[in-house]
Design a protein that fits this description.
Layout lengths: L1 H9 L3 E4 L4 H14 L4 E5 L13 E3 L5 H10 L4 E4 L5 H4 L3 H21 L4 E3 L2 E2 L23 H20 L3 E2 L1 E3 L1 E3 L12 H11 L2 E4 L7 E5 H13 L11 E2 L3 E3 L1 H11 L4 E4 L4 H7 L7 H7 L7 H11 L1
Parallel strand pairs: 1-2, 1-4, 2-3, 4-5, 5-7, 6-8, 8-12, 9-11, 10-14
Antiparallel strand pairs: 11-13
The structure holds nicotinamide-adenine-dinucleotide and 2-amino-3-ketobutyric acid.
Amino acid sequence: MFVVQQVAMKKEKILVIGASGQIGVELTLALRKIYGGSNVVASDLREENELLKGTGPYVSLDVMNKEMLHVQVIRQNITQIYLLAAILSATGEKNPPLAWHLNTQSLLNVLDIAKEEKLTKVYWPSSIAVFGPTSPKENCPQQTIIEPSTVYGISKYAGEFWCNYYHHRYGVDVRSLRYPGLISYKSSPGGGTTDYAVEIYLEAKEKNKYTCYLEAPTRLPMMYMPDAIRATIELMEAPAQNISVRTSYNLASMSFSPAEITASIQKQLPSFEISYKPDSRQQIANSWPQSIDDTKARKDWGWKHEFDLDKMTVDMLQNI
Ligand code: NAD
Ligand code: AKB
């Protein structure tokens, strides 16, 4: 309540770019609860998501059109931007130049406007995809060997250093999290390697069986969306002096493989069946760590996850 009053007094006006995506829908709804519907402007290239309709303003916006973005920021008196538009790992490999262009230019457009208009804060997510085959597989540290092997990972790693640069050179208060694979039921995932962990629940409910594009033992860092949304808001509300990482924070809650999520689903739906047909996404998954050390996030701004695999499974199957 205290936080809500403080925020309201500051009269922040937020622009969410990529608001119709998997994270955007839930983050926009959560921000609207805190700041009030009219103070959070949702925007996307796509049409407005059904769940956002009637909850606050929506504008159609291409983040690559810097002039139009700048006009919107001035016209709407925007003070903070959450930039979620991106091409994710699996889709990125289909058109690497496009993924590089969108993922890096969108960030540069936002950071430049944030600098010029003296925005109070910017949020931009990175990913565990920054890590590559030479990074430690277990408890991958905040700072370690980072040699990404996907265009998505390369664009995220470059983006992290642009955030760091704009913070130290121009004083832009830009904050970032390296999200693991995110699992949610409100809006669909958009072309990632970890999307199977959403599809499996949908097909378990619909068909009681699922063919997985990753092999049974492929363990990856994952997180349930309510934890990811809370982490984002807690990071953004933390006092600036607590934020010691200006590239992007490692963030973790659970890791599991297709075999382990299947076992968790079978506790609720005992006759659920899985089969495996690995495709090109297997190689991407093999390049990522299996678990992440997020000690820095826990120390700096008090991060604590709430959901483990079984708790998430119960919630997902209840809500789909
Ligand atoms: P998504 O693909 O579901 O949503 C992205 C949204 O951006 C889409 O609605 C799309 O229409 C929009 N968009 C694309 N190009 C645009 C443009 N030129 N202008 C305006 N909007 C445009 O992605 P998501 O899963 O919600 O991911 C959001 C962010 O979080 C991305 O930066 C992604 O890399 C990062 N992330 C996501 C995950 C995950 O598991 N979902 C994990 C790690 C990091
Ligand atoms: C993807 O699989 O591309 C995303 C991510 C981990 O960044 N879910």
